[in-house]
Amino acid sequence: TCKKYWWTNLLYINNLVPWSPTSGLCLAQSWYLANDMQFFIIAPIFIVLLFAYPLIGNLVTIGALCSSAIAAAIITAHYNLAPSMVLRNPQNYVKLYRVPWVRITPYLVGILVGWFYWCWGEQIKEKVKTLPDWKKVLLATPLWLATAAIEYEVVFGLYHDIQGVFTPGKFASKADSVSYQMLARIGWALALMTQVLLCQCGLGGFIDSLLSWKGWLVLSRLTYSVYLIHLGLIGLIIMQTRHAIFLEPDFEFAVLYLGIMVMAYLAAVVLYVCVEQPVALLERITYRTR
């Protein structure tokens, strides 16, 4: 695949080419890099409209967001796809999971929330500062609980559908699949953005303190390298395993997960020191001389 389609990675179209579910990808996880670049290229259209013509910008952005959700629902219904892509239908990955017109919904939610915070964020922060502590708790607690419940359902709501691979009759219905694919990405993004706003406006409490811990900065410098390395590392370990791996007991999977995570971060340190950081320094020198 890499010999034939290496150029798709350079052009950031490897989420669209090759289209066949049997063709595979060169560096499989890089499909999202293509999505991210495509969103980055078209994002100025929405941002300029939001700041120059707020009403039109909101209509266009919300319209694009709704169109993406509807497209996900139509594709799911037409091809009878599942809410999860695990072991069900290879068409799920090609026609739904990696395509930009489905994946763009969280990106658009982020643009809208960023614009909202730029317009009213400071006013909200000043208003929150005047509230007594009990009112802050009364205001923040339901929002934190609601957003956490949405995130929980988006992630763990797939449990029974995934179990259906091993237990006949547990697969999600077509209506459930369509609803999930239509709403899950929007729900996740809205919940996450609400939590970000709560932290930014002084309603984050101990969660804000935890997320603001400076130790995360060290790990954040390694996350991109971990992203590039982890899938190959998982494949290498699975291929070298001499016995079947089962979902139960959970302890075995937990050990496997923790081991892969530690090895991925150790390998990421080497990649960061030898490749990512030197390239970043060269870029800084280049831009500085200009």
Count of alpha and pi helical runs: 12
Question: Sheet bearing the most strands, described?
Answer: none
Global shape: globular
Task: Quickly give the structural class.
Answer: mainly alpha
Number of strands: 0
**Mean pLDDT over the full residue set:** 89
State the helical fraction. over 70%
Strand content: under 5%
How would you describe the overall organization of this protein?
It is a single chain. The chain has 290 residues and is mainly alpha-helical. 77% of the residues lie in helices and 0% in strands. It is built from twelve helices and no strands. It starts with a helix and ends with a helix. The mean pLDDT is 89.
Précis, in short:
Helices cover 77% and strands 0% of the residues.
Entry keywords:
290 residues, mainly alpha, 12 helices, globular
Please give the structural blueprint.
Blueprint: H1 2-10, H2 31-52, H3 54-79, H4 90-97, H5 100-129, H6 133-156, H7 159-163, H8 174-200, H9 205-211, H10 215-220, H11 223-240, H12 250-289
